[in-house]
Each structure stands twice: as C-alpha cells, then as structure tokens.
C-alpha cells in the first residue's frame, strides 16, 4: 500500500534528487523510499501505521490484493485556461508554487493545498474527449505496463501510449465516453 507525502524542500535538493533518480534508473518515489528506509532502519518494522492498529491495540489484518501490484499513479487535475499567467498569479496569491513548466509555455503545474493542478494554455479539444477540466494521472510505473494491464482488464484505450513533448501519454475512455489521461513525465524534458 502506498500513500502520498507532500513535503517542502529546497528546490536545489529536489533537483539533485531528481538527477540522482535518473542516474540510478529509479523513479523518484523509489529513490526516496530507499533513502528513508535506510535512515529509519529497523524502526519502521517496530512502529506500525495508525491505520494498522485496532481499537484494542492489536495489529489489524491487511486486506489481500486481488489484482496484484497496482500501477503507481498520482492524481493531477488539469484545467484549460486562456490566461495562464493570470491563473498562476491567482494560485500563487493563495500560496501555490509552480513546480513544473512555466507561464511562458503551454503547460504549468502548480502545487497548492497539498495537491497539484495542471494548467494548459489552450482550449480543450472535444474531438479528443477533452473538456475544460480533465482527469489525469502521472504514472510512476512505465506506461507500457499500465497499458498492458488496462487492456487485460478490458478497458477501452482512446489513444495508445505515444511520445509527447513532456514524456509519454496514454488516453483511456470510460464506458460513458469520459477520457482519462495517464502521463509519464520525463524530468529532463520539463526542467
């Protein structure tokens, strides 16, 4: 079971971690897990998570997974905007911080309120199933594996994995026609 932890770190440290992950051929999550596990050592085995303890103090049984290992995905809501600099200024005034892209380009990702919001500076393409607000995920699992998995479960693929200017993208379609996008971000392309 995984969970998302959001921390604020010096931008130089984040850049160094990303570069080390790329050099080590690891995802950023895998690298941080290794670092934290090495630091915590045996302590992590002795201190169960609060969710793992029942009211009487005993460990709760872990639920069995039915599908095996799920792809590691992080939710990213995407909003198409006509004025990206204005939208970013509003979000920054509320405490947001640009974490990828820039207002000078087509894409900017802002971290705010413990979540990340992607802003696309062009109108949606309805013929591709896009709307003003889109449901998108950033994959930490290789997209080829994600695509194989969803196909094996009978999920409709709106567009197979393709190269994009930021990495790779897979587009799925729900039974009611809603498009769900899964992106694999290449850190070297968005820095």
Description:
The protein is an alpha+beta fold and 191 residues long. It folds into 2 domains: 42 residues; 118 residues, Roll (2,3-Dihydroxybiphenyl 1,2-Dioxygenase, domain 1), CATH 3.10.180. The chain has 6 helices and 8 strands, in the order αααβαββββαβββα. It has an 8-stranded mixed β-sheet with strand order 2-3-4-1-5-8-7-6. A hairpin with a 5-residue loop joins strand 2 and strand 3. Helix 1 packs across helix 2. The chain is globular and about 50 Å long. The model has no long low-confidence stretch (mean pLDDT 77).
Radius of gyration: 19 Å
Structural class: alpha+beta
Low-confidence stretches: none
Separation, N- and C-terminal Cα atoms? 30 Å
**Assigned CATH superfamily of the largest domain:** 2,3-Dihydroxybiphenyl 1,2-Dioxygenase, domain 1
The major beta sheet can be summarized as: 8 strands, mixed
- How many helices? The count is 6
Number of strands: 8
Dominant shape: globular
CATH class of the largest domain: Alpha Beta
Share of residues in helices: 25-40%
Strand content: 25-35%
Main-sheet strand order equals 2-3-4-1-5-8-7-6
Mean pLDDT: 77
CATH architecture of the largest domain: Roll
CATH topology category name of the largest domain: 2,3-Dihydroxybiphenyl 1,2-Dioxygenase, domain 1
